[in-house]
Amino acid sequence: MSSIPVLPGIQSQMIQTNRLKMHILTSGSDDGIPVLFIHGNGSSATFWEETMLALPDGFWGIAPDMRGYGDTEPLPIDATLGLSDMVADIHSLVETLELSRYHIVGHSMGGGIVMKYAMAHAADLLSITLVSPMSPYGYGGSKDENGTPCYEDGAPAGAAAVNPDFVKLLAAGDRGLENPMSPRNVFRQFYVKPPFIPEREEDLLSSMLSMRVGEDWYPGDFVPSPHWPGAAPGTKGVANAFTRKYFDASGFANIAPKPPVLWVRGADDLVISNNAMWDIAALGAMGFVPGWPGAEECPPQPMLDQIRAVLNQYKANGGAYEEVVIADAGHSVFLEKPAQFNQIFHTMLTQA
Q1: What is the pLDDT of residues 270-305, one digit of tens each?
Q2: Is residue 81 part of a domain?
Q3: For 62-80, what is each residue's pLDDT tens digit?
Q4: pTM above threshold 0.85
Q5: H or E segment at 322?
Q6: What CATH number has the domain bearing residue 196?
Q7: Nearest CA among 126, 79, 101 for reference residue 239
Q8: 3 part of a folded domain
Q9: Which residues contact 312 (CB under 8 A, 6 or more apart)?
Q10: How many CB atoms lie under 10 A from the CB of residue 73?
């Protein structure tokens, strides 16, 4: 059962699939139309509870913790699979629950997982909602809307590009405000747009802290590189798995059939943007990381341009998508602006 308190109306259970033991949260009746919610990095199913409870009648919300997060069995993350291990985990849950057709929603890294999931299981999906998704070319290490790698070894991205103070404070379970890179400060500055503080901040912080820290999980390992900043992604852990070196969901544009796609993002998102504050190339360009080789060799990753290019190709191939930008919101619009988000999201669910 959940190690984090759940809201009234949310059920917590452990499900043994043919791959691993998964912790899931559910809402509504299991005879409703299923809606799968896939969380992002540094979070868990806990982040989705309010959104699940707000679902219209007739829908069954299902939110799993991914491996390495929450209360799911913490199997190691093979970075070389580019998050395909998590895709397979989700499908093993779908098979165990005997789901046939369902809606799917992904936030941040979860949006990238959902794009890859759709590449393998498009025929099962009624609709796809991407909430502040990471680029189909991963996080870090690419330089144009086509996802061209900056360097052949994957630099500058992955475990070596993660702030080491943040990792140490995560591992220590720090809940304070003293260090600017404490999990609570990171949540307040980057997960949402300041000065917003959610009512359930303590549970959301516990969700952040549920992420396993180490080479097999977050951030992973790294190897020396002749390229800036001197290290490249290794073969273990999630921060390497979602780099350009291993992750490529650009094939999403070619899936068949093509369910309707909703892309929702906050106008003031600092995590997913064309100048993202967790992209080491953007930090180098701002002078925060010394030795930056310049914009021709290693520009800030144009994440929004990359997402839009793939979705435009999806549309050109016969699909349909809508991009909705919510004003005065950051990386977690469903927490920050729930009424606006749910209105758009529920329209997708009921019309798809």
Answers
A1: 999 999 999 999 999 999 999 999 999 999 999 999
A2: yes
A3: 999 999 999 999 999 999 9
A4: yes
A5: strand 321-326
A6: 3.40.50.1820
A7: 79
A8: no
A9: none
A10: 16
